[in-house]
Design goal:
globular, 13-stranded mixed sheet, alpha+beta, single chain
Length: about 375
């Protein structure tokens, strides 16, 4: 009889490699799964400056069968006045005992650290891309950095005492459907009426500091109070700009200005997941060549960042920015886009997606669990 055991991993590349490689075994026959870049993920997970966190790997005998990360976002806890931990990067073979071993270990660690609740899956920090388990829409590959998992994960979470916290939606739209909304006539009028302009943003060495300052100003002023995230600082956004410089496209990055004041921001990315599938987790020896050859053949995009400051909401600023992003996307050969993820409590964001003829096609669910009983 084989023994199920849980190992706590050291945060170094050698120890973390089985953790990163586990999904390659679990999804080896799943055509929809998009493998991460192994080297980049190892570097990210071994960063000890990311706050308190611990990595658990479950073994059945000598075979890794489940994993999870548990952490504490101290800045978020200070903002919300709570004692909450988070879990992320959960994966498990199809056996309840494996999943329970991973989730119980994560909860025990957070309980020992004084946390009263746990929420997830989540990445912690200002990460804006990945939220929750895929709960609806299993019929295709995930769009750039969104979650992907088998349907049985939700059952495992619920059997381990987790309950729904919030849903986050993904919306799908084709470029030609947006073109049919009459924006080419509306946008010039609203720009003149409300006194704003929209500019494509090219990030260069000589303007990067100003771009970051403008982005921080817009995000902080427009930050929805219902968002359970930290309000980003200049340092946060500067770090993210550095991380995305290799994948962002100025054709799909715009800011709105009223005179010299930044009032809006929209950023979309080509769906590089279509290329990552062919790279199979490796940049070398030929992964980078596959990336270079495949990036201009991408036909989808993900819009994951839309902000408008309160005074200019309901003045079609968002529509004007989307119009410019759509025109830029068409230049790149983009035929469709996903808007994600939209918090179910964000009424204005949901309304904006519907105005653009987008329809909801996927749901990502975050769960919560009490660690200390009343």
């Amino acid at each position: 009889m084989r023994l199920i055991r849980v190992e706590i991993l050291e945060q170094n590349k050698q120890a973390m490699r089985p953790f990163v490689k586990l999904p390659f075994a679990l999804y080896k026959n799943d055509p929809n799964w998009v493998p991460p870049l192994i080297g980049r993920q190892l570097k990210t997970l071994c960063n000890k400056k990311a706050g308190p966190r611990r990595f658990f790997l479950v073994y059945d005998g000598e075979t890794p069968v489940a994993r999870v990360m548990a952490g504490i976002d101290q800045r978020l806890n200070e903002r919300l006045g709570i004692k909450q931990g988070y879990i992320g990067l959960f994966e498990s073979a199809q056996k309840m005992d494996y999943a329970r071993s991973a989730l119980d270990a994560a909860c025990a660690y957070l309980r020992e650290e004084g946390m009263e609740t746990v929420m997830g899956p989540s990445a912690g920090g200002i990460e804006l891309f990945t939220k929750g388990l895929l709960a609806e829409g299993f019929d295709g590959a995930p769009v750039l950095l969104n979650a992907y998992n088998p349907p049985y994960y939700a059952e495992y979470f619920e059997k381990c005492g987790f309950r729904k916290h919030r849903d986050h939606y993904a919306y799908f739209v084709r470029m030609d459907e947006i073109e049919g909304r009459g924006l080419e006539e509306i946008v010039p009028r609203v720009k003149q009426r409300f006194g704003f302009r929209v500019e494509h943003i090219t990030i260069r060495k000589d303007n990067q500091d100003q771009v970051v300052k403008d982005a921080v100003r817009v995000i902080r002023e427009a930050f929805p109070p219902e968002w359970e995230m930290i309000v980003p600082t200049y340092e946060d956004i500067a770090r993210e700009v550095k991380n995305i410089k290799t994948i962002y496209r100025p054709e799909m990055t715009v800011m709105a200005f009223a005179e010299n004041r930044p009032i809006g921001l929209v950023m979309a990315f080509p769906d590089y997941g279509q290329v990552l599938k062919k790279m199979r987790g490796h940049i070398f020896p030929i992964g980078w060549l596959r990336f270079l050859l495949g990036r201009n053949k991408i036909r989808g995009a993900r819009c994951n960042m839309q902000f408008v400051v309160p005074e200019y909401q309901r003045k079609a600023v968002n529509a004007a920015m989307i119009y410019e992003v759509v025109n830029g996307a068409k230049q790149l050969g983009i035929q469709w886009a996903e808007g994600s993820t939209v918090d179910e409590t964000s009424v204005s964001s949901i309304a904006n997606t519907q105005v653009m003829a987008a329809h909801r096609y996927r749901t990502y669910r975050q769960y919560e669990k009490k660690l200390i009983e009343d």
